[in-house]
Amino acid sequence: MHFQLTEEHLMIQKAARDFAQNELKPGVIERDEHQKFPAEQIKKLGELGFLGMMVDPKYGGSGLDAISYVLVMEELSKVDASASVVVSVNNSLVCYGLEQYGTEEQKQKYLVPLAKGEVIGAFCLSEPEAGSDATSQHTTAIDMGDHYLLNGTKNWITNGNSASTYLVIAQTDAAKGHKGINAFIVEKGMPGFTVGPKENKLGIRGSDTHSLMFTDVKVPKENRIGEDGFGFKFAMKTLEGGRIGIASQALGIASGAFELAVQYSKERKSFGKPISEHQAIQFKLADMATQIEAARMLCLKAAWLKDQHQPYAQASAMAKLFASEVAMKTTVEAVQVHGGYGYVKEYHVERLMRDAKITQIYEGTSEIQRIVIGREVLK
Ligand code: CAA
Question: Is any ligand 1 atom within 6 A of the Cβ of residue 86?
């Protein structure tokens, strides 16, 4: 066992850090305020190969490992979680799902442009009445011979309006329960597919979250992913990796807030000295640093297991559970270290605090992570 990143890892980490500072930081407050999707920044991230990071270069990806993905997600999320969620969903939920389980034709047609960042994708599992209870899909896809007829509504879909390719989970045979669920590739512009208004959210306000409505959408048979009835397992397997992405996002939000708190504590004076010299502040910074390091280890461990082709469902759930709690605690403390300044937008920490909350909700709430971990430890 060794805890050292390779030269290549360090280079990728630096590239992401530079991008975050130079391209994401300017304008991040304004995008949050006006709920503006970071379209230009996402385009550049695509050009740099960050949207198909782990995809084989023969399908237009960068061929990097999951450790690199954690490093990139942390750096981007320190500054702009609205941009990093696009990177996470495109890499983990969309590209990974297609590369792992798609046919060669599906990969050529859909994965290549997604991995190159020419278009972005969305993963559509949640419904008005099926968030945590993901087997209770109300969206139906009826087998009509050469196509499926898709009807239903999906909620809180990240990249809902800006995506071109949507992986949609739907019930094809209710009598079969989770074995009657399938995953489909749906294109924006297919007749009957409409996008609802953008959600007005507490955090990650720049990200593009929408409901999607499907009314008699004809989805060609060849757009089903995997064997008939594979859709629920497809969603679960894909989310295992997605949780590494969101855990790393939470880690980045926490470490971003921590770095700001350290910097501020050295500059701000009270009672005749920088507040960093007061033990009350040092204790806070020590707790933050310790928890962040533990979260980082869990993220890297989950990524390492994935890279080694070992089971990682439990590790990714642990990383997400822990890192998202650390993100919440750390950002609240970072605001406290900043005092009144922390409560205003210019100092960034209030945004990070609002952004942190979603990491305890999406890609499975903290309660879902505990279910996944509990089942694994009891096996
Ligand atoms: N890998 C492979 N198969 C799996 C699996 C996994 N990780 N997890 C479950 N399965 C299989 C089970 O083995 C079982 O199959 P068999 O009957 O053949 O054995 C089948 O799937 C059903 O499993 P369960 O009985 O465990 O299902 P459950 O109804 O108890 O639910 C759950 C399990 C873990 C709670 C699951 O519903 C879940 O993860 N829910 C949360 C969903 C979620 O994360 N939603 C987030 C939306 S996506 C998002 O947020 C993206 C975004 O935009 C940012």
Answer: no
Residues in the chain: 379
Q: Is residue 154 packed enough to be buried (19+ CB in 10 Å), middle (13-18) or exposed (0-12)? A: buried
Residue 377, Cβ neighbours under 10 Å: how many? Answer: 8
The reply to whether 105 belongs to the active site is no
Residue 370: CB within 6 Å of ligand 1? no
- Specify the pTM: 0.97
Tokens standing for 25?
A: 């930081």
The DSSP letter of residue 307 is: H
Phi, psi of 38 (to 5 degrees): -80, 60
Contact assessment for residue 371 and residue 322, using Cβ atoms and an 8 Å cutoff: no
Distance of CA 233 from the midpoint of ligand 1 (Å) = 7
What's the number of CA atoms in the CB half-sphere (13 Å) around residue 173? Answer: 10
Which pLDDT tens digit goes with each residue over 123-151?
999 999 888 888 899 999 999 999 999 99
Q: How far is the centre of ligand 1, averaged over its atoms, from the C-alpha of 368 (Å)?
A: 9
**pLDDT tens for each residue of 36-92:** 999 999 999 999 999 999 999 999 999 999 999 999 999 999 999 999 999 999 999
CA 113 to centroid of ligand 1, rounded, Å: 28
Distance separating alpha carbons of residues 176 and 50, to the nearest angstrom:
39
For residues 94 and 361, give the distance between their C-alpha atoms in angstroms, rounded to a whole number. 19
Instruction: State the pairing for strand pair 140-143/147-158.
Output: antiparallel
Q: Is the CB of 166 under 6 A from ligand 1?
A: no
DSSP strands (E only) in 72-192: 121-124, 140-143, 147-158, 165-171, 181-187
